[in-house]
Write a structure and sequence with these properties.
It is a single chain. The chain is an alpha/beta fold and 197 residues long. The protein is 38% helix and 13% strand. The chain contains 5 helices and 6 strands; from the N terminus they run E-E-E-H-E-H-H-E-H-E-H. Strands 4-1-5-6 form a 4-stranded parallel sheet. It has a two-stranded antiparallel sheet with strand order 2-3. The longest helix is centred in the last third of the chain and has 34 residues, at 162-195. The protein starts with a strand and ends with a helix.
């Protein structure tokens, strides 16, 4: 069985939003970047914590999940954001560019329908700062249908913290234990059938 997916957002997760006074966490370093289509004379300021790259890399080295970007940065997450954090290249959900004025036009996060199609039944932990109650209900329904789904929601002004990856680790370990136990039960059942006259 394939590894559970880890979907990572960028804004509000790796790039915290400035506080009302315009300040950003002291742990974060300012960068000027050029997303696809942006004129060189009009770079975008972002703030990244270099320790986040090490934290995520160490977590991914445990082999519990398979990562993918899930962000409106789309491919730029892997070509612009990832390299600044020292992250290996990993895939991204190719989200459309909808004409919306809210991130919840139908009461839930606009990315969700596209994520659901992209996952095709895979187990998934999704780290994003912008879920609603309807997203949490979707995750519960998906889990009940046999597709374990965990939503992790960082504070958008602080971004991802070690506790968020600890949540994903615990969830993924439970899935691995369940799969191992199910495989063991199948093997025992097969051996018992082999002994039948």
């Amino acid at each position: 069985m394939p590894l559970p997916r880890l979907l990572l957002d960028v804004d509000g997760v790796l790039i915290p939003f400035p506080a009302t006074d315009g300040s950003t966490p002291a742990t974060h370093t300012r960068h000027l970047v050029l997303p696809t289509g942006r004129a060189p004379s009009d770079p975008v300021p972002i703030w990244l914590d270099p320790s986040d790259g090490r934290l995520i890399t160490q977590f991914l080295a445990e082999g519990l999940v398979s990562p993918a970007w899930c962000t409106s940065w789309r491919r730029d997450a892997t070509t612009v954001i990832g390299p600044l954090l020292g992250l290996a290249d990993f895939p991204y959900v190719d989200l459309p560019r909808p004409r919306i004025t809210s991130s919840h036009p139908a009461g839930y996060l606009w990315k969700r329908d596209f994520v659901d199609q992209w996952l095709r039944g895979s187990a998934a932990a999704w780290i994003d700062d912008d879920f609603t109650e309807l997203d949490h209900l979707w995750a519960a329904e998906r889990s009940a249908a046999g597709h374990p789904t965990l939503l992790v929601q960082p504070d958008p002004y602080r971004g991802i913290q070690p506790v968020h990856l600890a949540q994903v680790r615990s969830w993924a370990q439970e899935i691995h234990v369940s799969l191992r136990d199910a495989a063991r039960r199948r093997r025992v059942g097969d051996r018992q059938e082999d002994r039948l006259p």
